[in-house]
Predict the 3D structure of the following.
Amino acid sequence: MKTRLKWGNMTLAQTSLNGYFAIMSTGMVMATGLFFLLIAGTLCFGWLIPLVIGIRRRMRNSGGKALIVIGSVWGATALILTSFAIYGIYRLIRYEVKVETFDAATYNGQPGTIAVPWNNSFNLQFLDGSSNGGPLKIIGTAGKALAPTGTFTISMINLSTATSNDDFFTACSWLNSGKPRQVTVTADRQVMLDYGPPFVASIQASQPSAGKVELKYKLSDKQGNAWQVSSSKNRQNVKFEARDKTEKVVWRGDFQYG
């Protein structure tokens, strides 16, 4: 069985992939939040109950040693887990919220140049490189951008372009191919990143089971990084056709998310 992508009158850069959106009611969100808050409170402070009871029993010479041990181990574990949680929240705030944008005008020194195989606007994000050691965003136009000098790790790249009908297309990748994402920028040369178009569209088909086959759509660059292409106005899903050995169409559909 052959599977073909059908784009209609749209080019690959104009193809829209809708993300998966889960819609929950306000009551469900509040109930879920209260449930997790109750669990977190029990894990963090529940150890005080056996510890206090154990200490009171020891003071009355009526046992309680096992309860003290349980409370102590529980408390130590809760303290370690809480420390990890606080550190995780700190990392999340530092690397996901407080993203500094590079400004060549205020940069102390001569910046370098980063280029991508894309002749329109783009931005990419470094895991490090900002003034406080956090993430740094680089913004470029016409496929080029000024960047600070040094060696950095790229975490995300976003390509964008506008069309004549006021539509806005974006292609985004988190560079998940597993290959090195480090880039060294110097002031005396331009660094060309090998991320982006031309994209390769492919379909992965699972082994038939009970007369059913699962198809997975993938858009990737030549480095093997997965990309998502979206449109600000056009929400058409990627269509496909499945044909047998005689080229007869046996299945038509589109990849829907949500």
